[in-house]
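Structure ticket #2291
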Amino acid sequence: MKNTINSIGDLQKYEKKIQPKDDKSEIFLCTGGGCIASGALEIKEALISALDTLGHNIKVTSTGCMGPCAGGPLIKIMPGSVIYENLTANEMEELVTTHFKEKKIYTKKVHHNIKDNKEAVQEADIDFFQ
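Resolution: structure written out below.
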């Protein structure tokens, strides 16, 4: 089921719907060749450090190529299939704080579809996966 986000209110409702408790979350980090070349391994270290520092018990799993290499490095947070792209290691503490502590979407790093430039937070809404 696709979720169309047309307003801040829609985004806030969607955020509440997809935010799981820490113990049920898992983060998948693309470690395909392009993402590794763009800093995925440094991102993994910074992500694990940020999770530990902020007291979150969330598993980080390295994956093979997740597909949209132009958006890499990227992560997918489950449940919810939330994708953040074009990441850097320096952003991990802010991302973890925003997504897990504040329970908000880290809008700085969500995908914008080419066709309409709308934010696509969930994997099923990203044009690459359609």
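Closing remark: The chain has four helices and six strands.
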